[in-house]
C-alpha cells in the first residue's frame, strides 16, 4: 500500500533528538576529536587575552574552525560559517547544538591574526609528535622539495610599483648628484601583497610564495615546513629545513633525497655535517664533443695539481680570493707538443680545468650511494614528496594563498601540513587497530584449535602451550 504524501511539519520542541547520536561512531570528525587535542591552545593564547571585557569564544573552538577550513577544503570563513548550521557533524565537532548561536565569520579570522603562526606551529608539532609515537615516522630517509603557491593578488598589481620606483629614482637624481640606491631592489612587489615575489614556473611568470617541505619516507608524514617568497631558491633553505626536522623528530636523518635544484656543494656539506648521506643529483659538466671530459683529469691533493690523461700536470692558475672555483692550467708548450692534443684542447694557451673549493664534498656525495639505490630513492621521491604536494592541492586548496602576507602564507602552510598529518595519523591508527583485531582473532582461533580437554574439576577451559 502506498504511504501518504510526506509533508514537513516543523516542531516547536524536539524531545527525542540527540545530536551526539546523529554523528556515527566511525565518522572521521569523531575520530579527529578523539585523537587530537585542541584544548591545549587555551594555555598557548591565554596571555593574549585581557582580564576584563566580554568573554571570547573558546579558543579550542576557534582552532577547530580553522582546522575545518582546510580539512573540509572550504574556500572561506564566510562560507564555513554559512554552512555550519546545516552540518550536524560540524556542529557536534565544535561543541554546538541546533539552537546554538554561530559566530560571525570575522571571529576566527581575527583570532588567527591575533595568535599568529607560533600557535599553529605548536599545533603542527603536537600532531607530528603523535605521528612519531604511532610509529609513522621512519626518521632514516627524508625527501625535500618545494612548490610555488599563487598569491592572493593579481599580476597587474606589480606594474604600478615599477612606475613608482622609476618616479622616485628620477626625483632623487634631480635633487642630488650622489649615486642612487639600487633601482632594482623591490621592483617586483605587489601593491596588494607586498610580501609576494615573482618567479618562473612551468614556463609562466607567477606572483606568490614557495612552500618548502621535509617529508618522511615511511608514511609521507611532513616533519618540517617553511614558507618564503616565490623567488627564493630551494637550495638556500635546505640546511634550516634539516635542522627543523631534527628538532621535530629528535634526530637527523640518515639519507636526504632531493632533486638537482638542491645539488650544490654547500648543501652536500650541510648534509654531511649533519651525519647524513645525500641522494641529490647535480648539473653535469658540459664538455666539447670528442674532447676529454673533466672527469678524465685526476686531482692530486698532496701536490694540489691535476694530472691529465697524458700524465702531464696542470697547476693552480689565476686563483682569486673569495671565488668558489680555482682554475688549473697546463703548460702551453707541453700541450702544443702533446700527441693527445686533438682529443684535449684546441686552445693555444693549454688545457684548463677548474675545481670547486668544496669539491671533496661533491665527490663524496657522488660516491655515497650505489646507482641502484639512487634510482630507487629518486623514484620513491616522486610518490612521497611530490605526492604530498599533490594531495595538498587536490584536497586542501594548497595552490593559492587564501590570505595576504608572508606570515599568513606560512600559517596556511602549517595548517595544511597539520591536516595532512592528522589524516595519516587517523588512517594509521585504523590500520593498526584492524591489524591488532586480526591478530587477536587469529590467536584465538589457534588457541582454540590446540585447547586441552575440559577439566571437570575446573570451571574454566585450560589451553595447551603454543609451540613457537
What does it look like?
With 468 residues, the protein is α+β, with helices and mostly antiparallel strands. The chain has 3 domains: 19-115, no CATH class; 136-283 and 366-426, 2-Layer Sandwich (Nucleotidyltransferase, domain 5); 294-357, no CATH class. 41% of the residues lie in helices and 13% in strands. The protein is built from 15 helices and 11 strands. The strands form 2 sheets. Strands 1, 2, 3, 4, 5 and 6 form a 6-stranded mixed β-sheet that branches. A 5-stranded antiparallel β-sheet has the order 7-8-9-10-11, with no helix packed on it. Strand 8 and strand 9 (313-317) form a beta hairpin. The radius of gyration is 31 Å and the shape is elongated.
Notable features of this structure?
468 residues; alpha+beta; 3 domains; six-stranded mixed β-sheet; five-stranded antiparallel β-sheet; 15 helices
Amino acid at each position: 500500500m502506498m504511504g501518504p504524501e510526506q509533508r514537513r511539519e516543523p516542531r516547536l520542541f524536539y524531545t527525542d533528538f540527540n545530536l551526539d547520536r546523529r554523528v556515527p561512531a566511525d565518522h572521521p570528525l569523531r575520530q579527529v576529536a578523539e585523537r587530537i587535542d585542541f584544548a591545549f591552545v587555551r594555555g598557548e593564547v591565554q596571555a593574549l587575552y585581557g582580564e576584563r571585557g566580554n568573554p571570547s569564544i573558546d579558543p579550542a573552538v576557534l582552532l577547530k574552525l580553522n582546522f575545518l577550513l582546510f580539512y573540509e577544503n572550504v574556500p572561506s570563513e564566510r562560507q564555513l560559517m554559512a554552512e555550519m548550521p546545516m552540518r550536524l557533524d560540524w556542529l557536534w565537532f565544535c561543541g554546538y547544538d541546533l539552537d546554538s548561536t554561530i559566530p560571525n565569520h570575522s571571529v576566527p579570522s581575527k583570532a588567527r591574526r591575533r595568535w599568529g603562526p607560533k600557535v599553529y606551529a605548536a599545533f603542527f608539532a603536537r600532531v607530528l609528535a603523535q605521528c612519531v609515537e604511532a610509529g609513522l615516522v621512519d626518521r632514516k630517509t627524508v625527501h625535500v622539495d618545494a612548490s610555488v603557491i599563487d598569491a592572493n593578488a593579481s599580476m597587474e598589481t606589480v606594474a604600478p610599483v615599477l612606475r613608482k620606483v622609476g618616479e622616485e629614482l628620477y626625483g632623487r637624481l634631480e635633487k642630488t648628484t650622489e649615486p642612487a640606491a639600487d633601482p632594482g631592489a623591490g621592483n617586483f612587489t605587489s601593491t596588494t601583497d607586498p610580501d609576494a615575489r615573482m618567479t618562473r614556473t612551468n614556463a609562466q611568470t607567477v606572483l606568490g610564495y614557495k612552500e618548502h617541505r621535509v617529508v618522511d619516507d615511511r608514511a609521507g608524514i611532513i616533519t618540517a615546513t617553511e614558507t618564503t617568497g616565490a623567488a627564493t631558491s630551494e637550495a638556500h633553505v635546505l640546511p634550516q629545513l634539516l635542522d627543523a626536522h631534527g628538532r621535530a623528530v629528535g634526530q637527523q636523518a640518515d639519507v636526504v633525497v632531493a632533486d638537482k635544484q638542491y645539488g650544490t656543494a654547500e648543501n652536500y656539506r650541510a648534509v654531511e655535517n649533519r651525519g647524513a648521506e645525500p641522494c641529490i643529483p647535480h648539473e653535469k659538466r658540459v664538455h666539447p664533443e670528442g674532447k676529454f671530459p673533466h672527469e678524465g683529469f685526476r686531482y692530486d691533493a698532496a701536490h694540489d695539481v691535476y694530472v691529465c690523461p697524458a700524465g702531464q700536470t696542470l697547476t693552480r692558475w689565476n686563483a682569486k680570493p673569495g671565488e668558489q672555483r680555482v682554475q688549473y692550467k697546463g703548460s702551453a708548450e707541453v700541450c702544443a707538443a702533446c700527441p693527445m692534443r686533438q682529443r684535449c684542447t684546441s686552445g693555444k694557451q693549454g688545457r684548463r680545468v677548474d675545481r670547486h673549493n668544496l669539491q671533496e664534498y661533491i665527490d663524496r656525495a657522488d660516491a655515497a650511494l650505489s646507482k641502484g639505490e639512487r634510482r630507487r630513492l629518486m623514484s620513491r621521491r616522486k610518490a612521497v614528496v611530490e605526492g604530498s604536494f599533490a594531495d595538498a592541492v587536490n584536497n586542501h586548496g594548497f595552490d593559492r594563498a587564501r590570505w595576504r602576507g608572508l606570515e599568513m602564507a606560512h600559517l596556511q602552510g602549517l595548517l595544511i601540513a597539520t591536516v595532512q598529518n592528522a589524516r595519516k595519523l587517523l588512517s594509521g591508527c585504523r590500520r593498526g587497530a584492524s591489524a591488532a583485531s586480526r591478530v587477536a582473532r587469529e590467536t584465538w582461533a589457534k588457541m582454540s584449535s590446540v585447547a586441552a580437554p575440559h577439566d571437570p574439576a575446573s570451571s574454566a577451559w585450560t589451553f595447551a602451550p603454543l609451540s613457537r
